[in-house]
């Protein structure tokens, strides 16, 4: 799973990325600060199952705070996008190529309207951020259209000659952007069977539908802490009712996580409060007071963790499954409930066995729902936060 963080220059992408990962991404208020893509681990948050067993887990990867489990996911911060990127303007070609393997896109926009379409600083509220939503979707859709349109006539003739296997040809043509045969076949059902008769608009519409399936876009309305931004946020929701839009302040989240890392506060990402545990200077006190009163009190969160959770659990439909034993939740290294796997909704007990180790799947005998102490078969569909023991001959 790879989550791409996208947007125009200086909208706050790198701040969002650093807040989510505490990685050393360069942050500045001028266009194209990010040239090469940054990759690092962020985390999704869920209620840990350890509390149900009166235990404290010791994760092998990720961490757990106050029975909140944080499971690692990979984030990608790419170069800023400007109008005309699909034609190579700005760093468009590099930007789009870097996004090929992304499964979902988080579009970070400057909801305060303090950055114009080129990523240049302007007076707050002087630029309409609604324009950014339309332009980015257009650029991404046209990127897909360009890949599909390349050699279209030859492609269309060849696909038609294959007789009923058009979805295979489309999947092959767009395999580099995660288009599978199943996705191609599903999208093609609403289009004319004879691809050679498609108009340009039909080709563009098809490219858009394919993009929506393979690169869904979630909007992070960043800089919500800037006075006046809430009105832009309301307009954005009114004008784009079908979009999932999360208000956020990446700079506030970065401040909180950094202070927690430094041992100055106790803070759990995604929560609406923090506790002081160290001494603050006057500047730090002023900043944290502002974050507490103007952001956490109003929005109940900085929004960064909400965006990541929404991308993984709502958009990509992942669930979290814990390996464990009915009589023992501790591994050979003495770690309690050390692992948590993110898997697609609909996975079976057998799929889970294969995820842990291929030998477990080969020798699969049965599985046990540890919470219910119930034996289940290989076709049993798992649920979010299940704890499963695999019984295998291997």
Give a short summary of the structure.
It contains 13 helices and 14 strands. The protein is of the alpha/beta class.
Task: Please characterize this protein's 3D structure.
The chain is an alpha/beta fold and 394 residues long. The chain has three domains: 2-37 and 78-128 and 216-313, Rossmann fold, CATH 3.40.50.300; 150-213, Helicase, Ruva Protein, domain 3 (Orthogonal Bundle), CATH 1.10.8; 321-392, Roll (Ubiquitin-like (UB roll)). The protein is 36% helix and 19% strand. It has 13 helices and 14 strands. Strands 1, 2, 3, 4, 5, 6 and 7 form a seven-stranded mixed beta sheet that branches. Strands 11-10-14-12-13 form a five-stranded mixed beta sheet. The chain has a two-stranded antiparallel ribbon with strand order 8-9. The chain is flat. The two termini are 28 Å apart. The model is unreliable at 25-34 (pLDDT under 50).
Task: Explain the layout of strands and helices.
Elements: E1 2-6, H1 13-21, E2 38-47, E3 63-65, E4 68-77, H2 92-98, E5 104-110, H3 130-149, H4 152-161, H5 166-173, H6 181-188, H7 200-214, E6 217-222, H8 229-239, E7 245-247, H9 250-261, E8 265-266, E9 275-276, H10 282-299, H11 304-315, E10 318-323, E11 341-344, H12 349-356, H13 358-362, E12 364-369, E13 374-376, E14 386-392
Parallel strand pairs: 1-4, 1-5, 5-6, 6-7, 10-14
Antiparallel strand pairs: 2-4, 3-4, 8-9, 10-11, 12-13, 12-14
Helix pairs in contact: 1-9, 3-7, 4-5, 5-6, 6-7
